[in-house]
Amino acid sequence: MATFTQEWANAITGTSYLPMTQAQLKRLLDRLARQLAAALLAEPFDLRAGQRVGAELVAAHIASAEALGRTVEVVQLRLVRDLGLVAEDVADRLARLLAAVTTGYARALRDRTLDEQETIRRAAMAQRTKAERALRASEARFRHQATHDSLTDLPNRNLFTERLTAALKAPQRDTDRVGLCFLDLDGFKRVNDQHGHQAGDRVLTEVANRLRQALTGHLVARLGGDAFVILIERTGGTRDVIAVAEAALAAVHKPAEVAGREVTVRTSIGIVERQVAGATANELMRAADCTLHWAKAAGGGRWMLYDAERDRRELTSQALTAAIPAGLDRGEFYLDYQPLASLRDGRVLGVEALVRWRHPELGVLRPGQFIGLAEETGLIIPLGGWVLAEACRAAGSWSTTAGTPFVSVNLAVRQVHRPGLVQEVRSILRHTGLPPERLQLEITESAMMSPAEEPVRALRHLADLGVRIAIDDFGTGYSNLAYLRDLPVTELKVAGEFVAGLRAQEPQADERIVASLVSLAHALNLTVTAEGVETAGQAERLRAIGCDAGQGWHFGRPEPADRILARLG
Amino acid sequence: MRRPDWAPDDIDIERPSVARMYDYYLGGSHNFAVDRAAAQAMVAAVPEAPLMAQANRAFLRRAAHFLVDAGVRQFLDIGSGIPTVGNVHEIVQQVAPSSRVVYVDTDPVAVAHSQEILADNNQATVVQEDLRHPDRILSHPELRRLLDLNEPTAVLIVAVLHFVSDDDRPAELLRTLREALAPGSWLVLSQASDEGRRDTERSDAEAVYQRTGSPLWFRDRSELTTLFDGFELVEPGVVWVPQWRPETPESSVNAEASAFLGGVGRIGG
């Protein structure tokens, strides 16, 4: 038996991987050999024993085509001989037994193969399902990351724009309305500067959480920095959006703790609310953003409602401002002059130069329409410089007889404060040949409000040259009398609003004010010109008070210099 | 854009898998037509390829027996593939039922299959990870759940290292693993070698594995010995795998035909 078993083991070793030791293998084969031997001799002859041996071989992982072939060979050649089996029909029985072994083996191997194929397919399928689920999850995550702000996890600008565009594109009804609240924290830069960016980030996260909690049902997005936006769909009108803004203000306006300290959080909100029909996302965003700036400019910590009229005005102003430099280049500006007449004899003492803009599209514009903007943006420097030079050039060309009027030119605050003013005036006078005493510079009280000494020094220089200095619109500013003592002022121009109150018969408060201004001026050795004189009655009262000169429609409207000069003869 | 770590793997069973090819060499049916085609191409190039796989598997079995006899009860099998027959947990739990086994493989189908096999075994688990990321393997919660790295542990990297090129710094990977192990821990390595092989065999084999996405990187005896740095090699050192503690003298005859070198080392102390 041992010889046969060893032969069998040798025959099948290496046909496939056998997960057992040689000793285990021999024990197994020994047992199977005994079963085969017993089957050969058994009465009655039972083929099922052969099938069982075949199946057992496969179960023991002796499961390859080669293993079966070699098993058949070894059993056929050696089993009967090695074991000395004797039976009448042994050759016949052996053939039938081997047939049963191969049948059992093939059946078991087929089942096993099918099982293994099934498990590996199931594994592949499980893996594919898992991978697909992971892919979907990661796609959702990608999408979330692409549409959300990583700091606050609020929707970001992309998602907001998407939602706003969708709301505008597919309104449920033609009458649908939509609202936006643009938020921007007030003084947020200070938090960052004082407490660091980490603290700033905590404030932003806190604000985001408060908005999220307070405004469920509306899309709250972070646009970047400290700017947030709320989308209110299907509003019933402005009131709905204001309610949201109020809720947002209430939610944000609570102290936040930063680095163990309480920090006040405030925000400004710009609101826009309108019909969906005809609106575009860009337009709405711009309107809300612009309104936000109004709220900031008004002191912050509040909401403001979009005002289309104001927006239009400001847009026009901005466009105008932007066009000033080109207008100067193209010579679109020109000067008109308005006489300043003596109240004593009606003689024209001087003329005030007033700038005009012949705008290629808007026609002739008056200073009120663009000077304020030019002052805000600093464009007043080139513009005012041009007015000064042009007025001096014109006045320099007038005759030089004793009666020729002086020219009065307005200087803006920025011009007065600009270093080099004296240099500029001196150079203009030299180039135009205008005697200094025929130039009057009008400055406003506010030009003198700053504590800087430079402007005062500059005006003294100019006065020393002989240039007349007038205070424009006297009485409407702070009317600080102190500077009248220190400054080389030659004249006060009393604002037209006091003059408007003058009536021939009954002296009123205005008349008393003008009267005391006149006596004050005279006490300081200054002359007084009243502005806005429109009627003979007003001129009469001013003369009675003792005012020196007047300016206004009663004496002549602004017009080209040659017409005034022509009348003077 | 760089692919983030959490993005899922590609689903690709149209490409032959080295794990399922190995199963085919061992006589298993856990494989698809694409794997069989690649495996048959390999057999055409190197006719004894199935014998090589069997020799490796037998080496794994003898090494596992050796370790469990040496008292080791924790096993980390990296690159375990399709657990055909004669898995580490079958071998060691038969001798010592309390043995704990963590399988690691990078092939998602192999991992899914292992999960099914191991569903009822609470002493064995599988982790989908790559040998190239030993830190992730060592910190994986499944590993931490089953293995106490303060106790001696056997790390088995059998028939896998030839898929790790020198660019992947195998010495560093092994050092990371070694430094996480307690004194008395073990390392089992085996890998393909082209010692004594014809150039055509080598290039044909390389061409087959190039298709799998796991190209081959052969190493010789001294290179493999170097990778046992920090371990004391037990007898007989790094040898052709049939020569490593054979059961019978005749089973190590013609050992170089296995084309696999292997050895077992221990951390002293």
What would you say this structure looks like, in words?
The complex is a heterodimer of chains A (569) and B (269). Chain A is an alpha/beta fold and 569 residues long. Chain A has 3 domains: 2-119, Globin-like (Orthogonal Bundle); 157-306, Alpha-Beta Plaits (2-Layer Sandwich); 380-556, TIM Barrel. Chain A is 54% helix and 17% strand. In chain A, the strands form 3 sheets. In chain A, strands 8-9-11-12-13-14-15-16 form an 8-stranded mixed beta barrel, surrounded by 5 helices. In chain A, strands 2-3-1-6-7 form a 5-stranded mixed beta sheet, sandwiched between helices. The longest helix of chain A is centred in the N-terminal third of the chain and has 58 residues, at 90-147. The termini of chain A are far apart. The model of chain A has no long low-confidence stretch (mean pLDDT 89). Chain B has 269 residues and is α/β, with parallel strands linked by helices. Chain B has one domain (18-266): Vaccinia Virus protein VP39 (Rossmann fold, 3-Layer(aba) Sandwich). Chain B has helices at residues 18-25, 33-45, 49-69, 88-95, 108-117, 134-139, 141-146, 170-180, 199-210, 221-226; strands at 74-78, 100-105, 124-128, 154-158, 186-192, 232-233, 239-240, 260-266. In chain B, strands 1, 2, 3, 4, 5, 6, 7 and 8 form an 8-stranded mixed beta sheet that branches. In chain B, helix 1 (18-25) packs across helix 2 and helix 2 (33-45) packs antiparallel against helix 9. Chain B is globular, with a radius of gyration of 18 Å. Chain B starts with 17 loop residues before the first helix and ends with a strand. The chains are: A alpha/beta (569), B alpha/beta (269). The A-B interface holds A 13-14, 16-17, 19-23, 61, 63-64, 112-113, 116-117, 119-120, 122-124, 126-128, 130-132, 134-135, 137-138, 141 and B 6-11, 13, 20, 26-32, 50-51, 53-54, 57-58, 61, 65, 82, 84-86, 90-91, 108-113, 115-116, 247-248, 251.
